[in-house]
């Protein structure tokens, strides 16, 4: 009997240890709209060793805590394709410039033999053969109740992105890279959309790095998705292959969908030239975004592109060397506080000011309409503790911005982040000297400078137009 009792006690202890281990693999808890997201919860952690095993674990119907302790290389695992594509006018011009950079050709949409229905291929496009790796075109499917987390800087998806079709998903501390960067439509980093009209709910993307993609770094479209937070992540647009022919990736974020709610918090979005992010653009759709404490650096085109159906509150963001902080589009709804009190009516608290240094002007449109669309998520916006705008650095021991285990991730003891080694080289300089004083839009309110659990991040920073289709720049007839 004693032996049986000891066995039962041991089994209970081991179960508790497994639950504790699973819980400790994820650092912090989800802030913003994704509050309450648990992913795979207490499922026993699994460590896939092959690309096939990883794909199976991510897409099955069971709760999973999946840990990546190695790089998974998908390139050449699914073959390659050579077919007729498009060389848009901007790439023809880029090749003629011979300025040390290259442009992007485009993969044509199925059946578009006339080159009239493919985004990224304009009326002056020429037919050329394009070759691409097949793996990047078809992302890994992430079903419901999944946690995907990397160990240190080992968790790399080389040559394939992710599509989140399920709900209650956590993706933390991984790097997605090398998705046919020479081709528009070569591959998206992270896509979030449901099967049919079933929209995902509860998705937390944290301490993730995305680089060298052919198309968007992040896409939410079709069904849309609610309860989504992207936090503490590094979106690296350094490239030798860009639609803007200047080493800056054009296709950043495309936020659409029947109904989408997104918190964009504490991210480093740099060396881009457009869509950083693009929000809205389709009649009959609503995309609500709270963008706070992000660092936008070295953007040669535009950051925010808020169009029809887009409702955005932007506060506490830092813009450095950004040519056009937002496009001039009166059809969008963009709340940009000029004084701390400008948000009081909409969210019940003061806002933090956005700061611009060596950058253009940030202009709001239809600002009174944003508050009405924030109704469903007002408490989450109000309770989130936004800090004063500042610059920050890439982490060294993990991906993204700020060390895992810092206040931004829910730990008690802060660490000082440092800049990680570059993974993608560009002929441009990473950090030009900045001599002008920053322009704060309105007086800075210091009343919201405290840190909330896994909410705000105050790391130390490193410094680091819509492309005109009439002048041969990038254009789109398909916005998906």
Automatic annotation (TrEMBL):
Signal peptide limits: 1-22
Compositional bias ranges of the Low complexity kind: 405-429
Biased composition (Polar residues): 437-460
Domain Pectate lyase: 110-325
Catalytic activity: Eliminative cleavage of (1->4)-alpha-D-galacturonan methyl ester to give oligosaccharides with 4-deoxy-6-O-methyl-alpha-D-galact-4-enuronosyl groups at their non-reducing ends
MF terms in GO: pectate lyase activity; pectin lyase activity
Region Disordered, residue ranges: 398-480
Matches recorded under Pfam families: Pectate_lyase_4
Broad enzyme group: lyase
Keyword Nucleotide-binding applies: no
Protein purpose: Pectinolytic enzymes consist of four classes of enzymes: pectin lyase, polygalacturonase, pectin methylesterase and rhamnogalacturonase. Among pectinolytic enzymes, pectin lyase is the most important in depolymerization of pectin, since it cleaves internal glycosidic bonds of highly methylated pectins.
Protein name per UniProt: pectin lyase
């Amino acid at each position: 009997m004693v032996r049986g009792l000891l066995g039962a006690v041991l089994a209970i202890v081991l179960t508790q240890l497994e639950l504790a281990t699973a819980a400790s693999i994820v650092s912090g808890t989800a802030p913003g709209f994704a509050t309450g997201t648990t992913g795979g919860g207490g499922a026993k952690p699994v460590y896939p060793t092959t690309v096939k095993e990883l794909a199976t674990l991510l897409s099955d119907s069971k709760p999973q805590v999946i840990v990546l302790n190695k790089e998974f290389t998908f390139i050449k695992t699914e073959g390659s394709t050579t077919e007729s594509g498009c060389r848009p006018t901007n790439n023809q011009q880029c090749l003629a410039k011979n300025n040390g950079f290259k442009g992007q050709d485009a993969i044509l949409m199925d059946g578009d033999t006339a080159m009239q229905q493919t985004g990224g291929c304009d009326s002056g496009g020429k037919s050329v053969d394009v070759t691409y790796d097949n793996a990047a075109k078809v992302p890994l499917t992430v079903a419901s109740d999944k946690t995907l987390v990397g160990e240190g800087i080992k968790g790399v998806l080389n040559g394939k992105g992710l599509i989140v079709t399920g709900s209650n998903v956590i993706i933390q501390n991984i790097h997605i890279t090398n998705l046919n960067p020479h081709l528009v439509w070569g591959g998206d980093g992270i896509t979030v959309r449901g099967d049919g009209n079933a929209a995902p709910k509860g998705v937390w993307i944290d301490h993730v790095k995305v680089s060298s993609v052919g198309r968007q770094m992040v896409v939410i479209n079709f069904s849309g998705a609610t309860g989504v937070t992207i936090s503490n992540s590094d979106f690296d647009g350094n490239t030798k292959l860009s639609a803007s022919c200047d080493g800056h990736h054009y296709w950043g974020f495309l936020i659409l969908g029947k109904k989408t709610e997104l918190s964009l918090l504490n991210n480093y979005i740099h060396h881009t030239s457009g869509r950083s992010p693009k929000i809205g653009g389709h009649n009959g759709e609503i995309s609500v975004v709270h963008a706070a404490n992000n660092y936008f650096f070295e953007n040669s085109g535009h950051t925010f592109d808020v169009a029809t159906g887009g409702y955005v509150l932007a506060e506490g963001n830092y813009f450095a060397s950004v040519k056009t902080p937002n496009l001039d589009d009166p059809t969008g709804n963009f709340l940009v506080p000029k004084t701390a009190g400008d948000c009081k009516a909409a969210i019940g608290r003061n806002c933090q000011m956005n700061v611009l240094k060596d950058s253009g002007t940030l202009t709001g449109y239809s600002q009174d309409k944003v508050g009405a669309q924030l109704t469903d998520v007002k408490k989450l916006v109000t309770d989130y503790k936004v800090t004063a705008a500042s610059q920050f650095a890439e982490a060294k021991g993990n991906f993204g911005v700020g060390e895992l285990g810092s206040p931004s991730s829910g730990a008690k003891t802060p660490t000082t982040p440092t800049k990680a080694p570059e993974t993608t080289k560009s002929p441009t300089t990473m950090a030009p000297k900045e001599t002008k004083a920053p322009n704060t839009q309105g007086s800075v309110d210091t009343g919201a400078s405290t840190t909330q659990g896994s909410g705000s991040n105050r790391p130390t920073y490193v410094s680091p137009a819509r492309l005109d289709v009439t002048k041969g720049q990038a254009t789109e007839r398909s916005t998906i």
